[in-house]
Amino acid sequence: MNEFKTNGCDGICSKGCGRQDKQLNVFDWLVDVPGNIDATDYVEVQFKNTRKGYYLNSNKIPLQKDDIVAVEASPGHDIGTVTLTGSLVLLQMKKARIKSDAEVRRVYRKAREVDMEKYHEAKAKEQDTMIRSRQIAKDLGLEMKIGDVEYQGDGNKAIFYYIADGRVDFRQLIKVLAEVFRVRIEMKQIGARQEAGRIGGIGPCGRELCCATWLTGFTSVSTSAARFQDISMNPQKLAGQCAKLKCCMNYEVDVYVESLKRFPARDITLETLDSTYYFFKSDILKREISYSTDKSFAANIVTISTRRAFDVINMNKKGIKPETLSEDGSQEVPQRVDLLDQDSVTRFDSAKKKKKKKKSASKSTGNNQHKAPKTPSGKNDAAQ
């Protein structure tokens, strides 16, 4: 058990886990392979937010996961954390479409105490810088929202992440920000989903947001995904914390689309000897369909399996009408439910009456206790 440890996980995991607090983390499943670390001089370095890069360890510094290093930046240097080493870095670079002949920046050294002091000084200014930059953008009349500010490790550069519906001419804003904060300014536009991932939060499922934990690519979500899954078309329920359609609606839509191919069309009616049944609703996972004798509302609901529905459809095509829709042929007896029977309108009245009776009884007993006992002649003992 010595080769396992708790490193960023709630349970036991191997030493390849690394930090598990960001959605850009990669599990190093080659960490235990002999000679894996020496397979390449490239390392993956991750920074504050959803930003990471690949750097060349030209000085042959012995680096491992979670080592804090100073890397080359433009201008100066930046401070980041090593999140991946070995041959898996080459696969990640290929996935990120970084060409082999591209210029890769270098790893300077492991972070010193002086580097960390500058780093913490720069990070301490981020909140105040963000609040002040929002006011500056508002004074300039720009329709944009600055969501976050990230200072470089040496404090010589600041990245401003902003959200805007359209194109924004922020040339004047960059000049003002450079004069006020005395740093090099870089503007990066992000979407509403990326902002929600940066802020984080808890979803309606009770778990942390997917975009804040593991989701890196955002695919388009349409309302058709909700229709396939029979989800209520309520905008408040369909939208996430980013005010966009929930990404999780795309997770299971393929299963529902494949299952719906085994369902009859909704416009097909089922004929019996008694009446005509119209489609009302379906349970896709159970493969059951509910039919009603009225198009507008639920009346005499009958739930049958898809197999039985196809059997009835084939019988109707041959001109045969079954007695009932049920598979065993038994007559369906609709059960009427009184909604007021479960939750009576006067359910609170009886409780109030009981309370009043209890209060009156307690008052009467209290008054009797305070009264002096009377003699047979009708006078009080105290008077005698």
Description of the molecule:
The structure is a single chain. The protein is of the alpha+beta class. The protein has 4 domains: 4-111, no CATH class; 120-190, K homology (KH) domain (GMP Synthetase, Chain A, domain 3); 211-259, no CATH class; 262-332, no CATH class. It has helices at 88-95, 113-124, 126-139, 171-181, 192-199, 210-213, 224-228, 235-238, 253-260, 306-317, 339-342, 349-370; strands spanning 4-5, 13-14, 42-46, 52-56, 68-72, 77-84, 107-110, 145-151, 157-163, 184-189, 270-271, 276-283, 288-292, 302-305. The strands form 4 sheets. The chain has a 5-stranded antiparallel sheet with strand order 4-3-6-5-7. The protein has a 4-stranded antiparallel sheet with strand order 11-12-13-14, with helices on one face. The longest helix is centred in the C-terminal third of the chain and has 22 residues, at 349-370.
| Average pLDDT over all residues | 80
List segments where confidence is low: pLDDT < 50 over at least 5 consecutive residues.
Answer: 1-14, 374-384
- Morphology: elongated
Give the ordered list of helices and strands.
EEEEEEHEHHEEHEHHHHHEEEEHHH
The spatial strand order of the largest sheet comes to 4-3-6-5-7
Helix and strand composition category: alpha+beta
| Total strand segments | 14
The major β-sheet equals:
5 strands, antiparallel
Number of domains: 4
Count of DSSP-assigned helices: 12
Cα radius of gyration in angstroms:
35 Å
What share of residues is helical?
Answer: 25-40%
- Ends: how far apart? 94 Å
Strand content: 15-25%
